[in-house]
Design a protein that fits this description.
Oligomer: single chain
Bound molecules: FE2/S2 (inorganic) cluster
Structural class: alpha+beta
CATH topology: Ubiquitin-like (UB roll)
Number of strands: 7
CATH class: Alpha Beta
Radius of gyration: 12 Å
Number of domains: 1
Strand content: 15-25%
Order of helices and strands: EEHEEHEEE
Length: 84
């Protein structure tokens, strides 16, 4: 996963959540519930295909793939670029 603003690349093992890997490199990361229902962690997706597991985004927003809840979401593409 690439972080566009930070200029960092983070590898997320299958047994870790995105947000866990992100906390390691971004101490000021915005989040709250970590369960996909508050929206605090919504992050713009600049490239790649997110796999949504939240209960906030509409079907249209999911299909558009322009943002995701990084606390529960994953990705189905090899590469994901986030606006972080
Ligand atoms: S932290 Fe609440 S939706 Fe991600």
């Amino acid at each position: 996963m690439q972080l566009a603003r930070t200029g960092t690349t983070v590898t997320v093992p299958r047994d870790r959540r995105l947000i866990e890997a992100l906390k390691d490199v971004l101490p000021g990361l915005s989040y709250d519930c970590e369960k996909g229902y508050c929206g605090a962690c919504e992050t713009r997706v600049l490239a790649g295909t997110p796999e949504h597991r939240d209960s906030i985004l509409s079907e249209d927003e999911r299909a558009a793939g322009r943002s995701m809840m990084i606390c529960v979401g994953r990705c189905t593409s090899e590469r994901l670029v986030l606006d972080l």
